[in-house]
Design brief:
Elements (H helix, E strand, L loop, with lengths): L1 H28 L4 H6 L5 H11 L5 H13 L13 H36 L4 H15 L2 H15 L15 H34 L2 H8 L4 H30 L2 H6 L5 H10 L3 H29 L7
Helix pairs in contact: 1-13, 5-6, 5-8, 5-10, 5-13, 6-8, 7-8, 8-10, 10-13, 12-13
């Protein structure tokens, strides 16, 4: 296990270096100039030159990249071009809202997806199986922005049961939970559909195994066969999908945050891209990449607890 963790840390470092280089170069190649955006339409050429010099944009691109990496190694992600705020401070300020939204969305996805998949496998080809499979297909196909808009129109505007958007209240309060419901459903629907499909496939494969038939032949109760013997072995691929989806949720809240006016990391990234705020874009991308690798490492560790036969030696 220690070897696995050490190996993943090395992979994380190499991955972050590669991602940081690609993002850094992409931002510099993309049309638009931060100096022009900061200076505004009335800025003269001398003003723009002074802004470039102040931001270090007049240096060769590779030298700018190495300066940036040197700062990252020391824990310095730089300063925002827009408001001169520390990038690390801006991310720390916004990240809790993104994390709360991702956790709530995954809770919705697991709460719906796992039971639906298991029941569909147990009642294969029944009306419930056909209905859940159809709903799962629709859930994967629906765009987040459309679903979020429809939920707002119905539950917030027409029925006025839930707030339109924002996560201003603490998540542990009643108001905070109400604010999380619509964005969590919007973001968690596609994940719930994928988890349901994987749960169904994994459960079907396990319940057809020889040891399940043996347990039934010995007179083990049906609920014990399903929820004790079969479920534990079927959870390995399901946990993989849950882990991957949680990693994607942490970095994929951009559209949902825009629809529900949530001041999270995704919205911070969108605003930074529009303003060509290089340090903020690079800092947010590095955060998302780091979280994705860490989540996958945690999934591998969970495997060993669920199935002792799995060894990383």
């Amino acid at each position: 296990m220690l070897g696995l963790i050490a190996n993943r840390i090395i992979q994380l470092i190499l991955l972050l270096i590669g991602i940081s280089f690609l993002v850094f170069m992409s931002m510099h190649i993309a049309p638009g100039n931060p100096a022009t955006i900061i200076g505004g339409p009335t800025a003269t050429e001398s003003d723009l030159q002074a802004i470039r010099e102040d931001l270090g944009l007049n240096q060769p691109v590779l030298l700018q990249y190495f300066d940036y990496i040197a700062g990252v190694v020391q824990g310095d992600l730089g300063f925002s071009f827009q408001n001169n705020q520390e990038v690390s401070h801006a991310i720390i300020e916004r990240f809790p809202q993104t994390l709360n939204l991702a956790i709530a969305s995954m809770f919705v996805a697991v709460l719906i997806g796992v039971p639906a998949g298991i029941i569909s496998a147990i009642k294969q080809n029944s009306w419930f199986d056909i209905s859940s499979t159809t709903v799962a297909l629709v859930g994967v196909s629906i765009p987040n922005f459309w679903l979020g808009t429809m939920l707002i129109l119905f539950f917030a505007v027409e029925l006025q049961w839930l707030p339109v958007g924002g996560l201003s209240a603490p998540f542990w309060t009643i108001e905070g939970i109400k604010q999380l419901i619509l964005p969590a459903i919007t973001l968690g629907t596609a994940s719930a559909a994928m988890i349901a499909r994987m749960s169904r496939s994994a459960m079907l494969e396990v319940i057809r195994a020889d040891y399940i038939r043996t347990a039934k032949a010995k007179g083990v109760k049906s609920w014990a066969v399903t929820w004790i013997h079969a479920l534990r072995n079927a959870m390995i691929p399901v946990i993989t999908v849950i882990g991957l989806n949680f990693g994607f949720l942490l970095g994929g809240t951009i559209i949902t945050e825009q629809v529900f006016a949530i001041n999270g990391v995704g919205r911070l990234m969108i605003d930074a891209i529009a303003a060509r705020d290089f340090p903020v874009v690079q800092g947010t991308v590095l955060l998302v990449a780091t979280l994705f690798v860490v989540v996958n490492l945690l999934v591998d560790i969970v495997y060993a607890f669920i199935d002792p036969r799995i060894s990383y030696d």
